[in-house]
Amino acid sequence: MQLASTADISDYLIAPDPGAARLTRTVAGVDHTGAPVRTSVVEERPLTIFLNSREIVTAMTIGDYPEYLALGFLRNQGMLADADEVTRVDFDEELDTVVVRTATETSHEEKLKKKTRTSGCAVGTVFGDMMEGLEGLTLPRTPVRTSELYALSHKINRTPSLYLEAGAIHGTVLCQGDRPLVYMEDVGRHNAVDKIAGWLFDTGTPAADKLLYTTGRLTSEMVIKTALMGIPVLASRSGFTAWGVEIAQQVGLTLIGRLRGQRFLCLSGETRLIRDADPAAIADEPRQQRRKGAG
Amino acid sequence: MQLASTADISDYLIAPDPGAARLTRTVAGVDHTGAPVRTSVVEERPLTIFLNSREIVTAMTIGDYPEYLALGFLRNQGMLADADEVTRVDFDEELDTVVVRTATETSHEEKLKKKTRTSGCAVGTVFGDMMEGLEGLTLPRTPVRTSELYALSHKINRTPSLYLEAGAIHGTVLCQGDRPLVYMEDVGRHNAVDKIAGWLFDTGTPAADKLLYTTGRLTSEMVIKTALMGIPVLASRSGFTAWGVEIAQQVGLTLIGRLRGQRFLCLSGETRLIRDADPAAIADEPRQQRRKGAG
Question: What pTM value is reported for the model?
Answer without folding.
Answer: 0.89
